[in-house]
């Protein structure tokens, strides 16, 4: 049994403003889990066992970067998990793209019968993913143009992820509050 099955059964990650359409772990999800697992394994395998105290200190210096990379991969995995729970899409385009998934779900909003709150949350998720991709592209571009002795500065752009996540939490919270206000008015 993989890690997703118990999470799905417990409803882990469910949000108040979104109905879950995906109940079962699909083949594309299982494959994606294997890809994420492989990426995490490569992070661990790239670490070598230190043979001297100096090598141990050098390895420990890189531990923070390792932890951050690990956390970022888990964050992407969690978004993937939430996407498949929210939309339950398993069509050919979803399997092919598996990266601009929220945009595809947005295009299917009528067929999925997304309500106003779910539409807002989907739009916010699209914005969030575009901003994340933009941060990566900006960092890569900056690394490309900076002189070699300053190239490490490009990595600091990833701290913008905190800003994006804060913005996302605020916007998703607004969508949830609007849904509650609307349901209270109709009650």
Describe this structure in words.
With 187 residues, this protein is mostly helical. The chain folds into two domains: 17-109, no CATH class; 115-187. Helix content is 70%, strand content 0%. The protein has eight helices and no strands. It has helices spanning 4-10, 27-45, 53-61, 63-87, 92-97, 101-107, 116-145, 160-186. The longest helix is centred in the last third of the chain and has 30 residues, at 116-145. The chain is globular. The relative contact order is 0.11. The model has no long low-confidence stretch (mean pLDDT 79).
Q: What is the number of independent domains?
A: 2
Relative strand content: under 5%
> What structural class should be given to the helix and strand makeup?
mainly alpha
DSSP helical segment count: 8
* Overall 3D form: globular
Give the SSE order as H and E letters: HHHHHHHH
The residue-averaged pLDDT reads 79
| Rg from Cα | 20 Å
Alpha carbon gap, first and last residue: 42 Å
The total beta strand count reads 0
| Helix content class | 55-70%
Low-pLDDT regions = none
Major β-sheet, in short? none
Label this structure with key terms.
187 residues, 2 domains, single chain, mainly alpha, 8 helices
Detail the topology: elements first, then pairings:
Elements: H1 4-10, H2 27-45, H3 53-61, H4 63-87, H5 92-97, H6 101-107, H7 116-145, H8 160-186
Brief synopsis:
With 187 residues, this protein is mainly alpha-helical.
